[in-house]
Design a protein that fits this description.
Length: 413
């Protein structure tokens, strides 16, 4: 059976200041990208404002607002009205305009869904918006092409070509996605985003799934997420937390500099640029470390079991909040789940209320002496029933694995 998987490939792009290069080719300039970002934000805010005013009008005349249907059919009328009133919207690619509308529709769907705790959609102001991006659907108008000098460039619909940089593996994959005769890889859409003054293009590709050959025996593994250590595996292996002291010291230093200067001064802006660079270095370092750890776990496992920890509760603890915010264990768990789904590895989540640290992995009886939060300092203990000495984290990982095996319906280890 032929299976396809979705992947996101993030590459850095270098838009130019001019709309055309020295050879007369149309290029994706900074002004064009900023204009597209602003147009998508403008469409989102205008349609949201119209819906808000319409809801107020319905309430004024005694109608039920919950029965208001917000879908593509109703919002397409608003988009056509905006195109007539504001001619500058034609500068943006059509699919990016429609995607801004879909984002608003999805925001309302999440708001009306009782199973998702989502707030009412808010306006995307230029200063407060964290999502400075727009999406272009690939209708044979997004591909990797060569300029007149023979260099690889990304061809974006209605914007032009733009220089990019990525690994050799990603470059070959994007070339295959641009080849019309290659049916194994297809580029579905590309998202152009701006993060801390740096521009990226995120390609969403659909690729034929080819499983890697199994070299050695694959294991069933339970994972205990912690604060002092990123993760402890049921086989006794430990994944330590990443050392981010250098990056955090730089971030704190530039934050202090920004606090001592006026917001519109030159020194404030210089410190803000350095602050953004330091913060991006921290994120990139952590992302690379987590990806390597996740790849190691998934490639050597046939079953991965984790506990769905209440990390929000950990953040409220003053002794744990700094470590949790710095190391972001939820990000690690999300990456692990995505990689397991991508590589067709069984991934099981057990309840956050399961007392994995209190149960003896040998005799399966509960030790209530370590159940309270003030006993978190006890890192090893002896079972009062079978007198087995346990490392707290390794024992919890073994219990998590055993619970996952019960859920799956296989024999316990």
């Amino acid at each position: 059976m032929v299976e396809f998987v979705r992947k996101n490939l993030e590459v850095r792009i270098y838009p130019t200041k001019m709309d055309r290069n020295d050879d007369g080719e149309k290029t994706a300039s900074i002004s064009k990208i900023e204009s597209n970002i602003g147009i998508t934000r403008f469409i989102y805010d205008k349609e949201l404002t119209f819906i808000k005013n319409f809801e107020k009008l319905l309430i004024q005349y005694g109608y039920n607002v919950n029965k208001l249907i917000i879908n593509d059919k109703s919002c397409n009328v608003l988009l056509k009205m905006l195109r007539v009133d504001y001619s500058f919207l034609k500068k943006a690619e059509s699919s990016s305009r429609q995607q801004a509308q879909r984002d608003l529709i999805n925001a309302f769907k999440r708001y009306y869904d009782p199973t998702i705790k989502s707030d009412y959609p808010v306006l995307k102001t230029k200063k407060k918006s964290n999502k400075n991006s727009f999406r272009i659907m690939n209708n044979k108008n997004v591909r990797i092409t060569k300029d007149k000098k023979g260099h690889d460039k990304i061809k974006l619909a209605k914007l032009g070509i733009v220089k990019f940089r990525t690994s050799k593996e990603y470059r070959e994959l994007l070339h295959r996605g641009s080849d019309k005769n290659d049916e194994t890889v297809k580029i579905k859409h590309v998202t152009v985003k701006k993060v801390n003054g740096i521009y990226y293009a995120v390609f969403n590709i659909k690729q034929l799934y080819i499983p890697e050959p199994i070299i050695g025996p694959k294991q069933q593994v339970g994972i205990d997420i912690g604060c002092s250590k990123l993760a402890v595996l049921s086989n006794g292996e430990e994944i330590p937390n990443l050392d981010l002291n250098k990056e955090t010291d730089n971030i704190i230093r530039y934050q202090k500099t920004m606090d001592h200067h006026d917001q519109y001064s030159i020194r404030y802006r210089e410190a803000q640029i350095q602050f953004n660079k330091s913060w991006q270095k921290l994120l990139n370092k952590r992302k690379d470390y987590y990806n390597k750890a996740v790849n190691y776990i998934v490639k050597n496992s046939c079953l991965v079991v984790v506990q769905n920890e209440n990390i929000i509760l950990w953040k409220n603890d003053k002794n744990l909040s700094h470590s949790i915010q710095l190391n972001a264990p939820r990000d690690f768990l999300n990456r692990l789940e995505r990689k397991c789904n991508q590589e067709r590895v069984k991934f099981v989540k057990i309840s956050k209320y399961y007392p994995s640290t209190q149960i003896c992995s040998k005799c399966h009886k509960i030790n209530k002496k370590i159940s309270r939060r003030e006993n978190l300092g006890i890192r090893d203990w002896e079972c009062p029933h079978c007198h087995t000495h346990h490392d707290r984290d390794v024992n919890a990982a073994k219990n998590i694995l055993n619970k996952g095996l019960q859920i799956v319906g296989t024999t316990m280890q």
